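DM between two lab members

TW: hey, do you still have the ELMO domain-containing protein entry open?
JB: yeah, one sec
JB: this one, 322 aa:
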Amino acid sequence: MDVFKRQKKALYASVTGKWLVFVFSTAAISSNTFLLQHLQLSSRVLKISSYILNAATECEDLIVRKPGWPSLFCHFLVKWVKWFGNFVRRSAFWLCNMLLCGCAHEKAHAEKMLTLDLTPLQEEKLRRLQLRLETTFDRTRREHQEALKALWHAAFPDIELRGLVSDQWKEMGWQGNDPSTDFRGGGYVSLENLLFFATKYQTTFQQLLCKKGGRRATWEYPFAVAGVNLTFMLIQMLDLRAAKPSSWSGLNFLKILAEEEAAFDLLYCVAFKVMDTLWLAMHASYMEFNAVMKATRAQLEQELTMESVGRIQDMPSYTLLH
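TW: and the structure you got?
JB:
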């Protein structure tokens, strides 16, 4: 009888433990759905259902096949867990099918959108933004020097900058003591993006700069250099150097840009926070930086193609900023 009690106790502990894992996993998925690709979500649900079914099988092996109501109750409990696992699995397949149908509809809508011409206002706003993108960082220009100093003071208000060429810049995540050498990929606009982020969303900027929150890797991404890479990624993603974007996300961005002059800077702030969130979610280290950037781009493209997004502030990930 003691053996049966121990096995029954192990059964209850196993079922309870697996159930709690399922509940917390589902809660985590629900709270971060907008940060995950929809098809990845259905894949996660399938994994959870398999986890539940495996747990039920393990529990079934623990049951001592003895007559009496305790054994019958345990069998009933395991059958219920299996039924629930199969229900979750069927739901995942249904979700996957619905999403695939939705993707096909969105693709057809996107192809129709790409045939439309830009409005005069969109063309004008695009030209203005392209002028910003063409400006390279020039260490000899006073305006650029002052912007770099302003970035330092926004990042470290209590620390005096010793010079535009100093080892202090490494603390912000530049590769060397002269940050001007790191602007080649993003140009002067990448400095403007960083400065906008530092002044508009100070709390989030400081959290990312100081790597606060979450379990951080031993080899973290360099903050400032990552910022320059994000600018370059957004330019490519939105196809901003072309006369007309070749993607639905790019066209939708031009609609937003026509109404909001600072749309590119706002999107940059969202992109930086999404990148850091995915970095933590993927438990990434410096060697996985490119993979995180690809995931960030995919997430932003998905959100920009949502019909409900008419402003950057309408993007689900915008709520991460503060």
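TW: got it. The longest helix spans residues 69-114. The two ends are 59 Å apart (CA to CA).
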